Amino acid sequence: MAGIGPGGKEDITPAVLEAVQQADVVVGYKYYFQFVEPFMKEGCECVDTGMKKESERAELAFLLAEAGKTVVVISSGDAGIFGMAPLVYEMRAERKSDVEVVSLPGISAFQKAASLLGAPIGHDICIISLSDLMTPWEVIERRIKAAIMGDFVTAIYNPKSHGRYWQLYRLQELFLSHAKGETPVGYVRQAGREDQEVKVTTLAEFDPEDVDMFTVILIGNSQSYIWQPASGSAEGCSPTFITPRGYYRDRTGEADKVGQNIMIESFRTIEGELSRKDYPLDHKWALLHAIHTTADFDMESILYTDPGAVETLYNKVREGTLRTIVTDVTMVTSGIRKGALARLGVEAKCYLADPRVAEMAASEGITRTQAGIRLAVEEHPDALFAFGNAPTALMELCALIRKGKARPAGIIAAPVGFVHVRESKHMVKPFRDIPKIIVEGRKGGSNLAATLCNAILTFDDAEQLKPGRDV
Q1: Which of 123, 292, 380, 420 is flagged as catalytic?
Q2: From the CA atom positions of the chain, what is the Rg in Å?
Q3: 23, 45, 180, 214: which sits with the fewest CB atoms below 10 Å from its CB?
């Protein structure tokens, strides 16, 4: 068994060349004889059984070998990767043959394609054939989904044929449902042969019509990227497809924080398990934060956001019109990322520790959280107000809005409990001109209110689904 590589003589290993030179018979598909004929000894016979007759080819090879011939069965690429090797070994076991079988590795098409594209397989890779001649499409689709969820670099063999025109479109659809549109895609037609074509594009821009049965496709993982050399550089202007292994980033101090890496992977996992894939980006960003914090997929049903609320509030922060976040309890303030606040010039405040709060609460017969909100409105009537504990504090804000004393930039309503919790959230909804994020029902909590604040402060990371910058 010999893998002759993708086609060019420079890609045939010395061991395979030696085997071909010693062969009495070379068995294989006739198209591939042209690549080994120059190395065959005089009188060596080439035997072909035609396309889709691999079993007949293997059986003939055994008959010739059992008759005393030295037989080399050739496959393009590596004989063990979608080649003849598995069939030959299975047939030897079935025939109980004592013929010696030696498997000589070859350069596979995905390896040759990778070398032409740059360095796309620098990390974990899987290889999938789209041919459903021997594998049901349902199984192939499960494998595609597993590759996506595993964040593998994925090599695609047999992407199209005359009768198989739609499978590649379906693969692209599956990848786009989970991966970023800018994920690199490289594909090489006739790798290593005279009419070789090499192309680099993105998952969103990839056109399945540009591919045929002689093409190998490589799809990057979430860390892959395309590097475009500067015009006029020594390397020309051909784009390079790179999947980092991590060494260079570690050496240059550019490695992502461990905590951020974990958070990114968690968000990808959550996104893959959402019941809907068409959430607006700013709602999805808040939802991913909420589920990540609680591990509760019920958030899909109970997290409400006004249309565009997260993006609107982020833009207010970026423009400098939102400078203060007021929280009902210190636990919420503690959970808002200090790095994000400092980076954006925002202050998070809770008034519970203010000495005036206890005095006001006692004199007016209200809760301390209510008193804290009254004081906050006097000093920051246009803040973003975030509630993660006290429904009475949220109700107090609603009363102050109705009296014209408060003009919040936005409201995060996530108090938790059993008394007046639902009612407090209902009271917020009529304020249609105020961007709102509400955790419906009894659920909520300081951790939820804080993470929803963090979702607003990091909305510029939503498109790339890269949370945790300030962790």
Answers
A1: 292
A2: 32
A3: 45
